[in-house]
Amino acid sequence: MRYPHFLPPGGTIGFVAPAFGCAGPFGASFDCALRRFYELGYRTKEGPNCRKDEGLGISATPAACGAELTAGYCDLGTDVLISCGGGELMCRDLDYVDFARIRAAEPKWFMGLSDNTNFSFLLTTLCDVASIYGPCAGSFGMKPWHPAIQDAYDILTGTVKPLTSYDGYQKTMFIESDDPQAPYVITEPFRLTTVPAGPVSMSGRLIGGCLDVLVNLRGTEFDRVPAFLEQYRADGFLWFLEACDLNVWSICRALWQLEHSGWFRYVKGFLIGRPLCNGQVDNGLDQYRAVTEILGKYGVPIIMDADLGHLPPSMPLICGSMAEITAENNRLTVTMALR
What we know:
alpha/beta; about 350 residues; 8-stranded mixed beta sheet; 6-stranded mixed beta sheet
């Protein structure tokens, strides 16, 4: 596994918009984030699509987004790359991303979540480069930073310390506010669910992302997962998964598809985030049975309701890293190592 250099003091942060751009109200949060990075002594460089909203589920045309992502990653003038936002159809960019060029380039940290799984996951499984499943650009504009944002910044700048669960979470994905620096509104208590019940621990190589995106990549020409699993089979794998648009039925179907594609070979544990459909129950199926009906047969630890996904805060996770994960006394700890 190749690990990029960290953001140095006075370095340059690049921004791209392979999914949604920072247009409309998101532009104000982006500007606040840029000011914060300036105050911390960094330079910034925006890609050509960062302020656009011309596409369907992405900032511009798929061709323009794919070209921006390739150029942004290969740009020797930036040290790390952060996505402007999530989206819906970033998969269409992949037809225009030059993965051969990216694979040959100097490794660079890429950070984003949700639809950005289309690149963060492929960067790891196609190019053998670690990536960060973490906050998009506008989140750095909040004031004060939530500990999850600080954790992401720490990773970017080279402090890879054990992460622990946060005190609570926001009930919805977005809270309407006229303040572009508005922090998360934490109202719900943090509460882990584990299978088996009680303290659990697991270790292995950490891979995953947004389940909506992963199941869409399955079986395409971008699916190199079986070969990647064989390459690192001695490590075993910890899958981190979270769902956005999927309801409980869709979560169960998606996991079934990945299972029957061999993606969970050599699995040593699952870390499941709070789904956006949190609390949904349909004909007896809830978010827990949707997972355990498929993954329970592997006989490995399953940690659910983790700080991961679309109901913030979300832990920044290094896709491709080695990790030790424990859950005990309603406390989640993730320790990652770059080896």
